[in-house]
């Protein structure tokens, strides 16, 4: 019997792409999505902030502009909407585009939540309560022909245990392959492990690491990535000031296409079902250029 997880894994494929750029006109998003679909990526993932680019509206624009590729949220913030709205929005899109939606749900970071005027509370308790609310809203939402997978942005062991219990899998980001191996062990068989891997097409070490640190991934107050790296055994001294070279290299793949592919392969070998590459680029057209350059080598994995 084919399960939601089996079907979702087949539709996502092994390799995806992430579009995480500043606000841009809808036409640019449509063109970039079509280019990535034509390049052969199985899925395109998009993020959101609280305010600005709203993820379900964005997914709808891109689903309408494409024909086959899966569109996923990486992630839809639970602080941005009521859980019944989350369930309803995902169900409407999944009903309209059968088999083409993947829902990633996450708690974000304290600063983003507090800037929106809300009070940060325990991520685990908040997620558990939120999933209860989503489940309670299922009967009131459309019933898609093909159920959409629900994935949790889970880095730590307790959130991953919740993903195993209450979701179809986990969606960790910016972690080394060892983290992927531990994620697979915690989730076990029958759950999706979809990994988001930041990538910098730059062969000069100093320039690549400077670009990586400029993202603020490891320097944001309350960064969950720092906590996850600490749990992997990285020393406290290596996690300050944007991370040591070793830490940066563990989180960011950089180099030529072959180097990026080796990192993706490491995640697949560690138990990932799907790896979505997230290239750093200043705009959507440049991002699409880089994904097209990477596509031939990634298709061999």
TrEMBL record:
- Gene source species: Actinomadura sediminis
* Keywords on record: Oxidoreductase
Q: Does the keyword Oxidoreductase belong to this entry?
A: yes
The protein's name is TIGR03620 family F420-dependent LLM class oxidoreductase
UniProt xrefs under InterPro entries = F420-G6PD/mer, Lucif-like_OxRdatse_MSMEG_4141, Luciferase-like_dom, Luciferase-like_sf
Question: What single Pfam family name could you report for this chain, choosing any that match?
Answer: Bac_luciferase
UniProt cross-references to SUPFAM superfamilies, sorted A to Z: Bacterial luciferase-like
Q: Which residues form the Luciferase-like domain?
A: 17-274
């Amino acid at each position: 019997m084919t399960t939601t997880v089996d079907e979702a894994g087949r539709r996502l494929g092994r390799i995806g792409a992430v579009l995480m750029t500043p606000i841009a006109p809808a036409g640019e998003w449509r063109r970039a999505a079509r280019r990535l679909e034509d390049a052969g990526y199985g899925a395109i993932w998009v993020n959101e902030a609280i305010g600005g680019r709203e993820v379900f509206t964005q997914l709808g624009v891109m689903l309408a502009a494409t024909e086959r590729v899966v569109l996923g949220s990486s992630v839809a913030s639970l602080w941005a909407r009521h859980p019944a709205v989350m369930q309803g929005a995902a169900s409407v899109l999944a009903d309209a585009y059968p088999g083409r939606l993947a829902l990633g749900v996450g708690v974000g970071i304290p600063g983003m939540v507090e800037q929106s005027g809300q009070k940060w509370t325990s991520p685990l308790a908040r997620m558990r309560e939120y999933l209860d609310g989503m489940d309670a809203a299922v009967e009131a939402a459309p019933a898609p022909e093909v159920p959409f997978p629900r994935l949790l942005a889970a880095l730590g062991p307790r959130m991953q245990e919740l993903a195993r219990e209450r979701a179809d899998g986990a969606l960790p980001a910016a972690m080394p392959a060892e983290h992927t191996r531990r994620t697979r062990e915690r989730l076990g068989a029958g759950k999706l492990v979809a990994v988001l891997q930041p990538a910098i097409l730059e062969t000069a070490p100093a320039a690549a690491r400077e670009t990586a640190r400029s993202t603020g991934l490891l320097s944001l107050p309350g960064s969950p990535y720092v906590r996850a790296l600490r749990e992997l055994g990285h020393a406290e001294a290596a996690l300050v000031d944007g991370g040591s070279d070793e830490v940066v290299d563990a989180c960011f793949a950089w180099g030529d296409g072959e180097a990026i592919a080796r990192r993706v392969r490491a995640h697949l070998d560690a138990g990932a079902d799907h790896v979505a590459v997230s290239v750093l680029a200043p705009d959507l057209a440049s991002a699409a250029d880089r994904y097209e350059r990477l596509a031939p080598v990634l298709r061999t994995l």
